[in-house]
Design brief:
binds adenosine-5'-diphosphate, about 300 residues, single chain, globular, seven-stranded mixed β-sheet, alpha+beta, four-stranded mixed β-sheet, binds magnesium ion
Length: about 300
């Protein structure tokens, strides 16, 4: 007999122990209960991944479970919040136990490594759609926002490879590349920059995570902060894989326009530069003239890019 909805939740999505002391009641009641410590605010985010839109049909379920959680933790990281709990809404076309086993393992292994509890969710039948709501704590008034960048601030990105994930997607679509193993790993198993987000909370003036590409995401900081910026293409942290791709194809904009790097982009005032204590690269500067420009080989040009748009 097929497993029931409650059997499914019990078997795959109920962890025996709550690990984070914020969580007072987890899966199994009508609501979860959380107790927010004095002096903290709750940061809340939700993201949905739809089969055929955000991931390929037949995607590896373990990687998918991990990535679904990672992209939500990345949003918390961008606010400087420490993740504590998540809820999971699953719409499944069928009950496939081996798929559920692998998916929940990918999801729960990453949750465990961040001491995040899965405290509730919803399970329904329909086209494969995966939604996670993630919650994190941030000291009152200390959350990093998009709106704090000031003229003269320097722009940084974490990590060492903008565009690696985008190149991984191209490899999935048939592009052949000497470094395919590396870029596929970046595409399928991104690491959310949680500890970096918490560290830079001390000195960053604004922050965003890179889900759509620097050229699409940085303008959100620029718009909210009413400033502009020039990026220095030569300073972008690029892996051997992306450097080789740009040399072979001439597609120099790819590391700026490809999505899913899940690095943090943040700004720091010149007076606070000595405080920086994470691996990051300065890639540009905030300027009074609105808009985003790129300096490359001595020329400065406007970069008009729009990220992925669901409804156009
Ligand atoms: P209700 O009908 O009261 O909303 P449900 O029958 O949907 O409750 O869910 C029963 C319990 O299982 C609830 O605690 C809910 O949060 C949890 N739950 C349901 N689906 C999931 C899931 N995919 N992952 C984690 N918890 C889940
Ligand atoms: Mg329900």
């Amino acid at each position: 007999m097929a497993i029931s909805e409650f059997g499914l939740i019990q078997r795959f999505f109920t962890t025996p122990l709550i690990v984070n002391p914020v969580n007072k009641l987890g899966v199994g009641d009508d609501c979860a209960l959380m107790s927010i410590p004095d002096g903290y605010e709750l940061a809340v985010t939700v993201d949905t991944m739809v089969e055929g839109v955000h991931f390929f049909a037949g995607a590896n379920p373990r990687q998918l479970g991990r990535k679904l959680l990672a992209v939500n933790l990345s949003d918390l990281a961008a606010m400087g919040a420490a993740p504590v709990s998540v809820t999971l809404a699953l719409t499944l076309p069928e009950v496939n136990e081996s798929w559920l086993q692998a998916f929940s393992q990918g999801f729960l292994d990453l949750a465990k490594s961040y001491s995040v509890d899965l405290v509730g969710g919803d399970t329904t039948k329909g086209p494969l759609t995966l939604t996670v709501q993630a919650m994190g704590l941030v000291p009152k008034g200390k959350a990093l926002k998009r709106s704090g960048a000031k003229v003269g601030d320097l722009i940084f990105v974490t990590g060492s490879g903008l565009g690696d994930s985008g190149l991984g997607l191209k490899v999935e679509q048939g592009y052949s590349c000497e470094y395919s193993e590396w870029v596929l790993q970046k595409f399928h198993t991104p690491d959310p920059r949680v500890s970096e987000g918490i560290e830079i909370r001390q000195y960053a003036s604004s922050c965003i995570d890179l889900s759509d590409g620097l050229a699409s995401d940085l303008p959100h900081i620029l718009g909210k902060s009413s400033v502009g910026a020039t990026l220095d293409w030569g300073k972008l942290p690029l892996s051997k894989a992306v450097k080789q791709y740009v040399e072979l194809t001439g597609d120099w904009a790819m590391p700026l326009t490809a999505g899913e790097d899940y690095e943090l982009c943040f700004t720091v005032a010149p007076a606070d530069l000595d405080a920086i204590n994470i691996e990051c690269t300065q890639v540009g500067v905030i300027e009074p003239l609105e808009g985003l420009r790129v300096r490359r080989m001595g020329n400065v040009g406007e970069l008009e890019v729009t990220g992925f748009e669901h409804f156009c």
